[in-house]
């Protein structure tokens, strides 16, 4: 059987839609040669608090289209790390699987990784490990690397509703706050709330074509 290869952008604690898109891939090629873009999932993730959905955004230094994503530095002069860790604790501290998974995330934040791309790659690798996903991950460094893949680069766009794409059809699971299900939050929402059932829920969330 021919292996399925998917190419995708690298996001910060990606939304569930991203994991639905790569769910059955044998290999995932992460774009490593693109230029940085503002107002994307590259530096922001969404979590659910008691009364609202909160956007966690990482401040960067000089991030613009002239700078390669892999060269973008994180601005640690701003207290974003404390805000994110406190926000995650506030959102999921009472979730069933928080105490099992949170220390792994906290350990990555405590490294104070100065490069946004490197931080996102470590967090993605951790998420795949916790979900026991065996997809092989590699970095694309030239356009030829994407010639034989299903190319999802620039497809999952934060500014557009996920409903416009033919990827993700929300399969509700038990969230910590509220009675109305909020779809397509960061993968940590699903991990902290459902733990080992995360993969099953993702497989149920694939849009029927």
List the helices and strands and how they pair.
Elements: E1 5-8, H1 16-21, E2 27-31, E3 44-48, E4 53-57, E5 60-61, E6 73-74, H2 80-92, H3 98-109, H4 116-130, E7 136-140, E8 150-151, H5 187-194, H6 198-204
Parallel strand pairs: 1-2, 1-8, 2-7
Antiparallel strand pairs: 3-4, 5-6
Question: Top keywords for this entry?
Answer:
two-stranded antiparallel sheet, WbqC, alpha/beta, WbqC-like protein, 209 residues, four-stranded parallel sheet, globular
General description of the model:
The protein is α/β, with parallel strands linked by helices. The protein has one domain. Helices cover 29% and strands 14% of the residues. The strands form three sheets. Strands 7-2-1-8 form a four-stranded parallel sheet, with no helix packed on it. The protein has a two-stranded antiparallel sheet with strand order 3-4. The two termini are 22 Å apart. The relative contact order is 0.24. The mean pLDDT is 94.
Report the total helices.
Answer: 6
Q: What composes the largest sheet?
A: 4 strands, parallel
Structural class: alpha/beta
Order of helices and strands: EHEEEEEHHHEEHH
Number of domains: 1
Q: Give the fraction of residues assigned to helices.
A: 25-40%
Overall shape: globular
Average pLDDT for all residues: 94
Distance between the termini: 22 Å
Number of strands: 8
Uncertain stretches of 5 or more adjacent residues:
none
- Give the oligomer, counting copies of the same chain as homo and different chains as hetero: single chain
Pfam family, one: WbqC
InterPro entries: WbqC
Protein name: WbqC-like protein
């Amino acid at each position: 059987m021919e292996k399925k290869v998917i190419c995708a952008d690298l996001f910060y604690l990606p939304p569930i839609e991203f994991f639905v898109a790569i769910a059955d891939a044998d290999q995932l090629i992460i774009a490593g040669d693109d230029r940085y873009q503002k107002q994307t999932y590259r530096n922001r993730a969404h979590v659910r608090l008691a009364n609202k959905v909160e956007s966690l955004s990482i401040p960067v230094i000089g991030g613009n289209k002239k700078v390669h994503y892999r060269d973008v530095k994180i601005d640690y002069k701003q207290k974003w790390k404390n805000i994110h860790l406190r926000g995650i604790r506030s959102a999921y501290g009472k979730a069933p699987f928080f105490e099992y998974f949170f220390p792994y995330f906290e350990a990555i934040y405590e490294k104070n990784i100065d490069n946004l791309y490197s931080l996102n790659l470590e967090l993605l690798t951790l998420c795949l490990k916790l979900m026991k996903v065996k997809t092989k991950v590699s970095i694309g460094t030239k356009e030829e690397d994407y010639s034989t893949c299903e190319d999802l680069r620039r497809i999952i766009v934060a500014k557009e509703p996920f409903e416009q794409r033919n990827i993700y059809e929300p399969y509700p699971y038990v969230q910590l706050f509220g009675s109305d299900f909020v779809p397509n939050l960061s993968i940590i929402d699903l991990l902290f709330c459902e733990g080992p059932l995360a993969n099953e829920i993702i497989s149920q969330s694939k849009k029927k074509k």
